[in-house]
Predict the 3D structure of the following.
Amino acid sequence: MRVGNYPLPGQWFFYRKASYFPASCVALGENTKFLVAIGAKELYDKLFGQLTDNVHANYSASEVNVILQWLLEYTLKVSQTEILLNKTIKVSDQQHQRLRQSIKRINREEPIQYILGECEFYGRKFKITPSVLIPRPETEELVQFIIQQHKNFEGLQVLDIGTGSGCIAITVAKELLNATVWALDSSQDALRVTQQNVKELAASVHLIEMDILSGIPDNKQLDILVSNPPYVLASEAKTMRPNVKQYEPAEALFVEDTNPLLFYRRISELCSQHLTTVKWVYLEVHENYATEIADLLIAESFSEVQVVQDMQNKDRFVVARR
């Protein structure tokens, strides 16, 4: 059944004959280079009508709004203000095809960041692929905390363990004065993404390919160690939304229920036995294990250890100094 003038889900609203468009939608050009002029808000509403019931059930109204705004901004360079004002925009055949394919992928609950191939982190655009996690707002909070604590320091040496897209390492390198930053990951595919972001954002970051569980970084004069390692329990996957568990790299998300502190124990061990110059440690953690992780660092001679809550009032970070 049709709702208003919207086509059925899975169909598309661009047809080759201008008579299929509403009165405000004008066909331009020849069929081979199909181009239409349409109000930005009208286009937004039609895209909204193409989303499936599953999408509307699994995403909040504000999330759907952000997804469609990002899609229009990326594909057509349309701003939120232009959508609200229903500014007339031109859509080429190529852009129409891109929008059509994107809506199909959104309806499969693929994250919009992977569809667009980018996301924003701390005011910068980072390239993103399914080889790396999508940076979260909580990780921005962690980076903000590091920058606030060390904005008056110069020449710090920093190691980011499990760098993924490089969002932490690159942001720290860009924001701290003359910092020397290393970005470590066990995944070659992830490091390719990091390298691309390092190049495009003109950051001074050194890459290290290593499995931290078996390798030992050869960094003798480190000041700061930061990490957002895998910490979601494998059993929690069944409660996660499809856009996360079906698309983001499992090896960057999950740890076995029987060993939830795996990476934190290794980091504590490295700081105690090998990376002995590290003065500050910044960790993103599972809210249920923050106290235990803090105890690990206390046992390794870190005298000032605190659990810091995120904006959702969850125990999300452990910060330590010695």
Summary: Residues 18-109 form one domain. The two ends are 66 Å apart (CA to CA). The chain has two domains: 18-109, 133-321. The mean pLDDT is 90.
